[in-house]
Amino acid sequence: MLVELLRGLKTTFKAMFEKPVTYQYPEVKRPVRPRYRGRHVLKRYENGLEKCIGCALCAAACPADAIFVEAAENTDEARYSPGERYASTYEINMLRCIFCGYCADACPTEAIVLTDNYELTFTSRVEAIYTKERLLEPVRGEARPTPQQTPPGVYTRAVPKMADPQD
Amino acid sequence: MTDLYEVTYDEIKHLVSERALEGETMLLNMGPQHPSTHGVLRLLLELDGERVINCIPDIGFLHTGIEKNMEAKTYMKAEVMTDRLDYLNTMGNNLAYCMAVEKLAELDVPPRAQAIRVILAELQRIASHLVWLGTGALDLGATSPFLYCFREREQILDIFELVSGQRMMTTYIRPGGLWRDVPAEFEEAVRAFIDIFPRRVDEYEALLKRNPILLDRMLGIGVLTKEQALNIGATGPVLRASGVAWDLRKTRPYMGYEQYDFDIPVQEAGDVYARFLVRIHEMRESLKIVRQALDRLPMGPVRSNNRKYVPPPRSEIGESMEALIHHFKLWTEGFTLPKGAIYSAVESPRGELGVYLESDGGNKPYRIHWRTPSFDNLQTLTVIGSGHLVADLIAIIGSVDIVLGDVDR
After folding, report:
1. Contact between chains at A98 and B169 (C-beta distance less than 8 A)
2. Under an 8 A CB cutoff, do A101 and B77 touch?
3. Domain A33-153 class?
4. Burial letters A20-51, b for 16+ CB under 10 A, else e
């Protein structure tokens, strides 16, 4: 009886010195893996041009019909992205989105990527629709914001050369 | 709108005994919000005091219309719904669906993809059994195993996040192979799990197996005989605990299961304890398969090269016009499957998970039916649930291991 009691207590005391497996969220956040499929971001090229060319392949690939894209024509005076067209409207309804990552898979220019941000909150249905302004990456460093004035005949190619994902 | 159909008294009278009609016994609703029904399952119980005379499962509270909804999506898009059927067996559902599509398309899967599929499906089996063990023990009043089991399960889900980017809704196994190759850290993560898990499963067994209170709750409770199990069509651990050595991984091997050396645990008793033992042993056997598959993991591609079904790699999109056309075509219209019907089944943690897929030659399934193990195993409750105390019924439901997402679909 006493032996068993001590054996039980041994387990208890051992557990006291083990490292806990839980995280004290929200003070401590669990690190996520590189492939994590969180909130979407629309990427830019280094010069600030948007990668999205408004082809709406993401909208076609989306199993939840969460994406709405409307395209408009680029000109050299007001250029948003390389190639002929850019997305004038880009909306993702986060209430519909299931974070399957099909949009990122389908995107022919790697414009839409899923990031590690899993803290999505909104208090209304309107707020749940992420517009292009909210999705688009901010302009950093040397890059210029869009629309840009560009020399003619330079940005003719919409689909860039890409490497296979490495992570 | 059709008229409302009212069920008459005579139509449902036979569900309960004569004594209930005279008011001698009591009818009690257990669920759909009862924590021990493991989901939104309603059990209509006819009670004589504490004793269950009749147990009538009422399903449909979690009906999602997934089967019907899949008919409205292309084959590629429909796959995300398979994750949401049996949410404890996402990799297995992906696998069952992809196998059906591949069978109809006569699409080859590279050996490396097959081995990774096996590893992930077996890890998923362990994860699912851990949830069963934790919640099953919780139902019987043992609270600590629940926390321990979820600790190990989290390790498996972390591996899933590593490969697919999501812990549960993976959509990692795709028709013709996998989404992407596994990352470099995959082997290390699985090895870490293989190292730690045998000790842990021994610990759980020691915690529960010889606990006199648990034994009283499990031994001789909810006995399902071999004949009953076969008549109802029960599969998986429920069938194997009743003495039938039927496991699709052995009897109808798929994905190269025949190369791996593992046993099928079988118990004769057919009670709650037998089902407990079968699942505990299955976790060890699954780990054996994972270890062998990882040791022999071949190198090579993980996706079929058939561009009519599998999108091209990203590096080709920017260079080849054909690749870009295939990419756009597959992501908008999807691929078409030849006209015909196919049935393909895998062994899920709960039993035979079958997909009946009928194609009319279009880019969407004409009809897809899921033969889900939880649905058939649930029917055993009417047989093994009666005659016991209400408290024992809790143990029985836990031991059958149903997932309501799998029952209603």
Report:
1. yes
2. no
3. alpha beta
4. eeeeeeeeeeeebbebbbbbbbbbbeeebbbb
